[in-house]
Design the sequence.
DNA sequence: ACGGCTCTGCTATAGTGTAACGTCCTGCCG
DNA sequence: CGGCAGGACGTTACACTATAGCAGAGCCGT
């Protein structure tokens, strides 16, 4: 696992036991929803589980397909509404440059985040770099700009994929 | 006018003579295309002019509608191909969080950029803040991440719209 | 039980973007 | 001059992303 705060913060190693990532994320989600008095319904929980099924950003229609596997296929509003709830609770983030969604490892507190997006394996790693926040806030202030939301999405290659050619 | 380098870099004042913004942008585009030996065809030039018709980010299908005004309506690939060319030449940037496009005031050289996006008037201002670039590059390096493209889109309120309530 | 609320299902449609193929134009070379 | 290669544009069709609006089901406090 990673903390996004250690010496080498980002990206999971290839062999990590991912099932525990999912379980941890769901447990954290249960906690924050209970604390906030909001309902993590079975549908929402299932969508969150699917988002966490990898460390890649997941497309809404892929979630839709995964939901509809067994039963009659789910419809778009179903998954979009679940995602809307999960985003409102900070349980998932939307990656605008991919039209896709990724689980948040730290849903317990509001935070601005930055995302490292690997063009090789597709894995997304969330940073919470105070230095970037500070530089952004300073620049906004210099322009008398009242900042409300920062979208910072950094594309490139994770350490494991660094050797491959740049296939954007 | 603004330079994005002065004391208060960003955002145009309300009363500026915008026609000269358009003309300047087209003149710069003519220059860089001639220098690079690429063809700024009438269609591409017209699309660029439409992108520059305001300082807001323009949606592809709005361009499409504007193009089709008089004659038979243009089709999506027409405008997307023109935009693809203009982006390849650095003449416009895509704002991923808006699915929209904005003219680049400095197409003559490659640069990473940050965008201030006002939720009030919709105007977009391009920054080229070395301090943000540096913070981002440092964080990427800390994660052994080979950075190739930075998407930094900052939403908030420009100075003139700062007084209004936050209507995202 | 009742009324109000939230959550979910469903239909339909809006909005965004691309694949694939054909034609024409332009610049180049023999 | 004639032919050719590549780029630019037109057109059709389609894929993907997202939301509006309404109906029914379940939960919850009174």
Sequence:
């Amino acid at each position: 696992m990673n903390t996004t705060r250690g010496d080498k913060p980002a990206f999971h190693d290839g062999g990590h036991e991912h099932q525990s990532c999912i379980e941890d994320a769901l447990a954290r989600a249960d906690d924050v929803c209970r604390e906030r008095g909001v309902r993590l319904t079975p549908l929402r929980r299932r969508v969150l589980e699917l988002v966490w099924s990898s460390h890649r950003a997941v497309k809404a229609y892929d979630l839709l397909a995964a939901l509809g596997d067994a039963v009659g296929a789910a419809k778009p509003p179903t998954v979009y509404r679940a995602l809307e709830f999960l985003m409102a609770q900070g349980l998932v983030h939307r990656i605008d440059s991919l039209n896709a969604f990724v689980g948040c490892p730290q849903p317990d507190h509001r935070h601005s985040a930055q995302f490292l997006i690997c063009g090789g394996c597709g894995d997304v790693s969330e940073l919470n770099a105070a230095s970037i926040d500070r530089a952004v806030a300073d620049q906004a202030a210099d322009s008398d700009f009242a900042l409300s939301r920062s979208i910072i999405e950094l594309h490139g290659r994770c350490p494991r994929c660094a050797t491959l050619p740049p296939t954007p």
